[in-house]
Write a structure and sequence with these properties.
single chain; about 350 residues; mainly alpha; about 70% helix
Length: about 350
């Protein structure tokens, strides 16, 4: 009996330990996404033209090293065209954001891998989570590769990264943070550290919540399309676009369906109205589950999106808009957890 009690005590202790670690890692990914937004908005992402996973952690430490790094950049498509003639001082400014973005990614990798190794060796991995943690580790490694794959798309001919690859990079980051956050909530609830009030849900409410999550995810991806194409720098008004609900130049690409992916006006239009549909879905879901936090998050997020647009994508507002998307997602996931708990789910 004593041994059984002690085993249960160790199990709950491991659950809480792993959950807190996962929550910290999810927060680190959250900040990574915001740093990534600043890197994109300052057009800093192509300032480092090589991928050096280990030695690249250190910035140039001497005048000669800086000169060599600057010379490599000047031979890149962006250095030869968009930023031709910039000074070394200006180069250092854009270099900083890309270096910080990559350094933060390395830090997240260590913050996940080293504690996981410790938990594994000391038998402190939460029961049933070994394969899940290895999956997250693999997903994090894939994210690093996709980051370089994205940057490489702007180092050949066109001095801009592929907006498809940018969306893939952001999407994987969101997925990574979502998985870690969801597992952390599950473990905290299983441990008893998190007293989560279940919602007496119906199949309709559960479908509503899942639909809201899907729309929010798609809206975030289209936000990456907008950022990658600089589509937020046109039609800086709301709710009309050039005085019309739908601008005429939305359909000049053939076939027509491709416009919503590659036509600047159509991409912005799609993001606008996806965001509004998401706003309605999430706000109504928040009302049904009586969550003032989720309601506040989605209202502020819509407001930040409009302000970002009419400010011609001012850096502070755009970074806050990126952060707001992840905060809204976190609040929605929390409420979905309560909904599934109320439905008797063991997830």
């Amino acid at each position: 009996m004593h041994n059984t009690y002690k085993d249960m005590e160790n199990k709950t202790s491991n659950d809480a330990l792993n959950a807190n670690w996962l929550m910290i890692c999810a927060i680190l990914v959250f900040f990574m996404a915001v740093i990534g937004a600043v890197t994109r908005l300052t057009e800093s992402g192509l300032s480092i033209v090589e991928w050096k996973p280990v030695t690249g952690a250190l910035p140039p430490l001497s005048t000669d090293a800086w000169d060599a790094e600057f010379a490599k950049y000047q031979q890149s498509p962006q250095g030869e065209t968009t930023n031709a003639g910039i000074s070394l001082s200006e180069f250092k400014n854009i270099f900083f954001w890309e270096w910080l973005h990559r350094l933060w990614g390395r830090f997240i990798g260590l913050a996940f891998a080293l504690p996981l190794m410790f938990f594994w060796l000391t038998k402190r991995v939460a029961e049933g989570y070994k394969a899940k943690f290895l999956g997250v580790l693999a997903l994090g490694g894939l994210q690093g590769f996709v980051g370089w794959w994205m940057v490489a798309s702007g180092l050949v001919d066109n001095p801009a990264v592929s907006h498809y690859r940018l969306a893939t990079h952001l999407g994987l980051a969101i997925l990574l943070a979502t998985v870690m956050y969801w597992m952390a909530l599950t473990l905290l609830r299983r441990d008893g550290s998190l007293v989560m009030r279940p919602i007496d849900s119906t199949p309709c409410i559960r479908r509503h919540g899942r639909c809201a999550l899907v729309f929010l995810a798609i809206t975030i991806i289209w936000g990456a399309f907008v950022a990658g194409l600089d589509a937020g720098l046109i039609y800086n008004e709301w709710p009309l676009m050039g005085g019309a609900f739908m601008p005429g130049e939305m359909w000049h690409i053939t076939p027509a369906w491709l416009n919503i992916f590659e036509n600047h006006a159509a991409v912005q239009f799609t993001h606008r109205w996806l965001a509004f549909a998401t706003f309605v879905l999430v706000l109504s879901f928040a009302w049904r589950v009586k969550s003032p936090w989720l309601a506040t998050a989605i209202v502020l997020q819509l407001g930040l999106g409009i302000l970002t647009l009419i400010s011609h994508v001012a850096l502070p507002l755009a970074a806050m808009h990126q952060a707001g998307a992840i905060i809204t997602l976190s609040a929605l996931l929390y409420e979905l957890h309560r909904v599934l708990l109320g439905a008797g789910s063991k997830r």
